[in-house]
Amino acid sequence: MFIRKAAQSDLDQIAQIESICFPQGQAAGREVFRDRLRTFPDHFMIMCDEYSNAAAFINGFTTDRRDLTDEMYRSAYMHDENGAWQMVFGLCTLPEYRQRGFAQRLLKEFIRQAGLQGRKGVVLTCKQQLITYYEKFGFVNEGISSGSVIGGVQWYQMRLLLG
Ligand SMILES: CC(C)(COP(=O)(O)OP(=O)(O)OC[C@H]1O[C@@H](n2cnc3c(N)ncnc32)[C@H](O)[C@@H]1OP(=O)(O)O)[C@@H](O)C(=O)NCCC(=O)NCCS
Questions:
Q1: What domain range includes position 105?
Q2: pLDDT digits (tens, 9 = 90+) for 7-21
Q3: Closest by alpha carbon to 7, among 79, 71, 57, 51?
């Protein structure tokens, strides 16, 4: 099992994993991933199994904006390579690969890279039931997100400060 950067050739697999992991309305579409892979491939990582099949992925752009908003999910062009904050737009593991630390390893690597790049921190939004999961990595819950209401769900914004 290994982590590698995603490429445009992973597009179909990524879109499929997303559609399995998130319900309709919350799942990002194929065009969104195409744009993200084109615009910020250095901030898109895949976890592969021992046969090199994609099992999980993480992605998000960098920006000087402090808060994660729904507009960011669909607007890859807002990416600023010199941005202070590393956003996390999606972290998902195919059901058959869960509870094996895949998401944990991806997130740790994402955080490590953000640290190496001198970012101020990492920001994500999540559902209530995952708050304690992210707290284990040092993320602090900032409460219900006002900028994200995607899928009609209540999202909580969490921030990890680096350095
Ligand atoms: C949330 C999600 C990404 C977690 O993926 P995962 O790869 O199973 O995550 P991990 O394996 O790192 O951790 C999951 C649990 O497995 C446990 N675990 C990790 N490694 C383990 C191992 N080797 N053996 C047994 N359990 C393990 C973790 O402690 C964690 O338990 P916890 O929930 O009590 O903290 C996955 O369930 C998913 O894709 N859900 C749908 C999409 C989603 O909601 N994404 C998050 C958006 S905010």
A1: 2-161
A2: 999 999 999 999 999
A3: 57
